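Table S2 (text version). Query chain:
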Amino acid sequence: MRMTAEQIASDTFAGVTPECRTIAFASKRLAREWKTMEAMIKIYCRDHHGEALAPCAECRQLLHYAGVRLERCRFGAEKPACAKCPVHCYQRTRRDQVKAVMRYAGPRMVWEHPVMSLRHWLDGFRQAPER
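Corresponding structure-token output:
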């Protein structure tokens, strides 16, 4: 079943850019990764930029960039956690932004999205496939 970002994010971010809503994921695992990234960015933007309903422009851009990177991941459904991936597909500045988001939102995910947080933590044990 192919899920689009629009189906996944329809309730979370009303103000996400249209190009971000056309991303299609080939597996439920990638769709779950998208949903996790989206939740983390929402927590970060809410607490740092004061945007409760929709992310600010900078966070929307980061979310769109993460969605495109996730959609184009060469490993597909076998994708390891980005920290363990042998291929770093994020630009340096974007990688630093995502690190900041994850460092802040990661601990808060345990309280706001406990199941999603647990699944993300378990995904961290996934081994990277051969190149």
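Notes on Table S2: Residues 3-123 form one domain. The longest helix spans residues 28-49.
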